[in-house]
Amino acid sequence: MSETLKVSLPGLDLKNPIMPASGCFQYGKRFAKLFDLSELGAIIVKAATLEPRVGNPNPRVVRVTEGLLNSVGLKNPGLDHILADELPFLEQFDVPIIANVAGSEIADYVETAKRISQAPNVQALELNISCPNVKEGGMVFGTKPESARRLTSAVKEVSAVPVYVKLSPNVTSIVEMARSVSDVADGITMINTFVGLQLDKNGRPELGNKIGGVSGRAIKPIALNMAYEVRQALPDIPLIAMGGIATVDDVLDYISVGADAVAVGTENFNNPYICKELVADLEQEVAKRKLNHLYDLKGRAL
């Protein structure tokens, strides 16, 4: 793979800046049947919680215009299973793993982060303080700057690897939230989904949990602006951006507002090869433009 796409971030040496977002790739087993996961820049695996979670009531996912509305509720088999079965499967691939960590209270996050950060192929953590469809934890930390900072500091103390904080867009000022963790986190990922609601023809919520998180192409202009604002305010913090990415032009847009790398979410459900295709498309685009490195375009919109 070309040197022109390589990216270096705290704890992460990436072949390229493309990775699947947490929750949209599970733990990679189904995708590994389709292509070599070693082609990816990194993989952000599905959220891990200390105990198994059954998730929210069905239906959990519905289509909306140019996107999805989901209320999965952090369903996962629990930390013990993930450490024993899911992460070992990924050891066969030459790709950095970013483990998404969630919880209900600080003690849950701390214990999960401490243990999962010691897994041999986990090179960074993504601290999930921004899930909009769980009743406890998550957004409680993700909407209050001091709470976010306190949680991040607690996790940093026990983590064996760098910690990236995943920001919620459901706040008055995402710049304020980013600033609150900027001197304790190793980096930021942004954004998670927007709180949304969809009704059926009888005027009833379609999701079993009623509200959920909106993702997909429809949110890209808003997500792009938020990345733009955070990069202007915090020019040096490592930033992995996401929100509505479906084409190589979308990737270039995020790089242009100063993102260091990008994560692809909803489009994985529309096209399971999308991350692989974006890597190839990005390499071709850099060659076509005769760039020395992709970062020749970084921050050009600022």
UniProtKB/TrEMBL annotation:
Catalytic activity: (S)-dihydroorotate + fumarate = orotate + succinate; (S)-dihydroorotate + A = orotate + AH2
EC top class named in words: oxidoreductase
Subunit and interaction comment: Homodimer.
Broad class of the protein's primary localization: cytoplasm
Entry's localization field: Cytoplasm
Keyword Flavoprotein carried by entry: yes
Recorded GO CC terms: cytoplasm
Chain positions recorded as substrate binding sites: 46, 70-74, 128, 192-193
Binding positions (FMN): 22, 46-47, 100, 128, 166, 191, 216, 243-244, 265-266
Functional note: Catalyzes the conversion of dihydroorotate to orotate.
Source species, domain of life: Bacteria
GO molecular function: dihydroorotate dehydrogenase (fumarate) activity
Keywords, sorted A to Z: Cytoplasm, Flavoprotein, FMN, Oxidoreductase, Pyrimidine biosynthesis
InterPro entries: Aldolase_TIM (IPR013785), DHO_dehydrogenase (IPR050074), DHOD_1B (IPR033888), Dihydroorotate_DH_1 (IPR024920), Dihydroorotate_DH_1_2 (IPR012135), Dihydroorotate_DH_cat (IPR005720), Dihydroorotate_DH_CS (IPR001295), Dihydroorotate_DH_I (IPR049622)
Cofactor dependency: FMN
Domain Dihydroorotate dehydrogenase catalytic: 5-284
Annotated pathway: Pyrimidine metabolism; UMP biosynthesis via de novo pathway
Enzyme Commission code: 1.3.-.-
Active-site residues, Swiss-Prot/TrEMBL: 131 (nucleophile)
Species, as recorded: Dolosigranulum pigrum
Cofactor note: Binds 1 FMN per subunit.
Gene3D superfamilies reported in the protein's UniProt record: Aldolase class I (3.20.20.70)
CDD domains to which the protein is assigned, alphabetical: DHOD_1B_like
Pfam family, one: DHO_dh
GO BP, sorted A to Z: 'de novo' pyrimidine nucleobase biosynthetic process; 'de novo' UMP biosynthetic process
Designated name of the protein: Dihydroorotate dehydrogenase
UniProt family annotation: Belongs to the dihydroorotate dehydrogenase family. Type 1 subfamily.
